[in-house]
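queue> holo job accepted (zinc ion)
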Amino acid sequence: MKLSFDKRLAASYKSASQRARILTERWVNESIFCPNCGRLQMDKYPNNQPVADFFCSNCHENYELKSKQDNIGTKILDGAYRTKMERLRSSANPNLFVLSYNLQKLTVLDFLLYPNIFLCRRSLKGENLLP
Ligand SMILES: [Zn+2]
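queue> job finished
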């Protein structure tokens, strides 16, 4: 598996956050297979879709990508609170990809998958965790 980003893509963006978004999304699109069914190609939603970032046209699973520079750490910033709550309440709650990268070296450091069954609105005791 290739763990480096495409240098040519990085050269066309000046903003670090834009470069990171383009590079990480492209890397996932070209390198990751569907963890649910094994289909080799992930499909990308158009930008700014509230549902997720990627989907599998074979098994219809959705995947959201969260990327962080250097270390994944203990917190992952989410998008809009309201959108996240709506996702958790719906049956379309996406699985979560977490990717850490080094933008200077243009490399992937870690890539993790959190299945959506762990991103839920109820505790193991059945308590509702959402307001
Ligand atoms: Zn699939």
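queue> Residues 34, 36-37, 39, 56, 58-59, 61 surround zinc ion (CB under 6 Å).
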